[in-house]
Fold this sequence. Notes:
The chain has about 170 residues and is mostly helical. About 80% of the residues lie in helices and about 0% in strands.
Amino acid sequence: LEASRHWTAAGERALERHAHVESVRHLQAALDALGQAPPDPEHPHRELEIRLLLGRAISAVQGFAAPELETNYTRALALMDAEADRPNDHRLPLLWHLWAYRNSNGLLRSGLEIAERMLREASIPSTRFLAHETVGLSAHFLSDFPKARLHLEAATELFRGIGAHTAASTS
Length: 171
């Protein structure tokens, strides 16, 4: 467990310094070390933290279409869903990254499903803005223009209500 913490810290430092390739290596080593550690009730939460960092690093190195992203973020979402009783501010950004992966790979219907989940789970104006925008874009990509318009207009209204600065900071 201690080795995993050290690898995670190294990966986080590398990420902060934009050394993304090194960050991926360190964070993968953190996951490997965690997998070799004796079972602990905190393992799922630690794995989730590592996977959230790893996703950022993989995106920077390989882009939103990288297959490793889906594997990583799908596992992170499963861990997050298993910790439903634990508050987590990363759920909607994680869903957005899964949406971006699916759309980047032409999985548009699946992307729409993710976007609709975002909308169901969004609870404050800034996250509802992001969710409506995401559903609207997905509908547009699928040529469902009435649905796209409905959600993009809702996003525009929310954007006006919360201000450009607050909305931009959620994505």
